[in-house]
Design a protein that fits this description.
Blueprint lengths: L13 E3 L10 E3 L2 E5 L4 H13 L8 E4 L4 E5 L14 H18 L30
Antiparallel strand pairs: 1-2, 2-3, 3-5, 4-5
The chain binds adenosine-5'-diphosphate (ADP) and magnesium ion.
């Protein structure tokens, strides 16, 4: 598994990524994404590593805290769904299957005892970790 950050992202190749509703700002810096570092960031990175170990094809690499105060993630190229033509039935099936597999793989995830989650709607039982960002 390659956990190394792409070589020296150029600080002038920066783009604001729209569409978030939690972080103050989300940036693409070169081939990486930069989000504010939160107490839950190490746990989220652990989950992303679990998904990648299981062969899940849609989990970005988590590169850790760099620079200080920010989490660095692999940039996944693509077009936002709300800027695309409506999906075909096959495309919708593919998205549904990806989400199904994501939820199934989270049932095997056993985070360390220091895991921190920041949930808007804390679950009553910890069975599945949901994506929550399925939009539009
Ligand atoms: N790893 C990534 N690769 C490509 N784009 C991303 C990545 N992470 C986030 N984005 C883009 O940035 C937007 C906001 O990110 P998100 O993680 O949803 O922020 P927030 O936590 O504020 O909701 C997403 O809607 C997506 O378009
Ligand atoms: Mg979001």
């Amino acid at each position: 598994m390659d956990l190394s950050e792409p070589a020296s992202p150029t600080e002038d190749d920066v783009e604001v990524l729209e569409g978030g509703n939690v972080a103050e700002s989300v940036l693409r810096v070169g081939a990486t994404v930069r989000k504010p570092w939160l107490p839950s960031s190490p746990t989220v990175a652990e989950l992303l590593r679990h998904l990648r170990r299981c062969g899940y094809p849609a989990a970005p690499n988590a590169y850790g805290q760099r620079p200080k105060g920010f989490q660095s993630l692999e940039y996944v190229p693509g077009t936002l769904a709300d800027r695309m033509a409506p999906m075909t039935s096959d495309e919708l099936r593919r998205v549904g299957a990806l989400i199904r597999r994501l939820h199934d793989l989270t049932t095997d995830f056993r985070p360390g005892k220091d895991a921190v989650w920041e949930s808007v709607f804390p679950p009553e039982e910890g069975e599945v970790i949901c994506h929550y960002d399925l939009a539009p």
